[in-house]
Amino acid sequence: MAVEDGVVRRTDPGAGHALAGAYAVDAIATHDAGDASARGAFERHLARCPDCRDEVAGLREAAGLLAATCTTAPPPALRSEVLAQIRHVRPLPPLAEPGSDGGRRRPLRAAAVVVLAVALVVTLVLGLVLGLDVAGSG
Ligand SMILES: [Zn+2]
Predict the structure, then answer these.
(1) CB-CB contact of 9 with 42 (8 Å)
(2) How many structural domains comprise the chain?
(3) Which residues fall inside 5 Å of ion ligand 1, going by CB?
(4) Is 102 domain-assigned?
(5) CATH no. for residue 16?
(6) What are the tens digits of pLDDT across the range 101-130?
(7) DSSP code of 7?
(8) Ligand 1 center to residue 65 CA distance, Å?
């Protein structure tokens, strides 16, 4: 059994009993690359192991009690303080749309406009020069 990013992954196929605690608090990985999930393997073990079923039930009850004892009511003035302070919070600028370039292509667009402007000027100048030559030769 290994813990990565708070998720328990099965590393030993025979460690069925050891996952009861992790299963009780929903901390077993549901997807393992290239193998059946650790959660599925433990649920198959759980179906035929009454000791683990009892342990999971007891641990879930204890976890529920822990959550109930940690609940605290917010101070009565909290709501009015938040609503008063929220008037002074500047909103963040909008995030870039998913898949957009986030403005990274603006320099490329500006360069393209400059290149097109230079090409237009060169074309006009050449047209004038050639036009004068045509007029001079004809
Ligand atoms: Zn068991």
Answers:
(1) no
(2) 1
(3) 17, 49, 52
(4) no
(5) 1.10.10
(6) 655 667 888 888 889 899 888 888 888 888
(7) E
(8) 24
